[in-house]
Write a structure and sequence with these properties.
Strand content: under 5%
Number of domains: 2
Largest sheet: none
Helix content: over 70%
Mean pLDDT: 90
Distance between the termini: 65 Å
Radius of gyration: 20 Å
Order of helices and strands: HHHHHHHHH
Number of helices: 9
Amino acid sequence: MSRSKNSESNRKGRVDKAEQILNGATQEFLKHGYAATSMDRVAAAAKVSKQTLYSYFQDKETLFTTLIERMAKGRFQLVFGSVPLQGEPQTVLRQLVQTGLSRIATDQEYLSFVRVVIAESGRFPHLAQVFVSNITKPALETLTLYFASHPELKIADPQASARIFVGSIIAFVLTQEVLHGKELMPMESDRLIDSLIHSVLHQ
């Protein structure tokens, strides 16, 4: 086998092993929370030695941060795609909210991960900041740019409007799904979507 093929095979092996570790870590963090999860638990769940685990991730914080970054990248692309938002506002914004609510709100792994981050945010605020920096902040920046690029919307403060728009979606998911409020405060998602779109188009 050539040196290049060996190198490619080694890289693939490392990627597969890292994925194996991350999958095992996800199970443990979701089951026990951040504070109660040890690297011993992760190694056992991932079926690797502690030596192998530490060769990929130097400590628990690095491992958890990597999980947040991986989740953020996947969910962000799921909702926003890989290119800047383009198109007519009513269509783009409606599709954005519908995609976010239909896919993110039904993603039980993501919702459970959010619960872990919220529960641990008091003791580990830097981990919550990693979550916000990798998930909420990019969404706000993308939507701010979109609002600013459409002067016909007559939005005086695109950044503040983006916060209101994204914040409404986050609040809906948190109260309805993360905090189990659907039975206490029932509301069809279409009502939220219609009101959000109306508030942007008729400022």
